[in-house]
Amino acid sequence: MRAFNxxxxxxxxxxxxxxxxxxRLIVLLRDLNDYTGKNLMVHCLYDEDRAPDNLHRQGLAxxxxxxxxxxxxxxxxxxxxxxxxxxxxxxxxxxxxxVDLRNQKIGARWACRxxxxxxxxxxxxxxxxxxxxxxGAVKGGKV
Length: 143
Known about the structure:
This protein has a single domain, classed as Muramoyl-pentapeptide Carboxypeptidase, domain 2, CATH 3.30.1380. Helices cover about 30% and strands about 25% of the residues. It has 4 helices and 7 strands; from the N terminus they run βααββαββββα.
């Protein structure tokens, strides 16, 4: 599946594979979109081309970004909702997030600074992201 950028409203109406997405995830994304009052852009939701155990393939994960909102502000908004997995991605065309409804008691949190470089979402990463946003290193949505 190729990447796409659809607003949540467009995706909910006619996005690819919407009928394969868990209704709990749809409700949470709709609520997140309404909560922020900004345009939530969907990069990937359902993806049948991934491995059977992949959460996108199972309709339990979404990738996206919130327009006109810094990455840390996106995280603060997202963390108000009961997503079990939250990842922040600084190397995408628009710095954004992965959220999912994985089946585990304690949620997972991680960050990805560049392709293939995953780090813990801890004070070091949050300071890095804050410094990048504060210093204007965010260009075209990238940190």
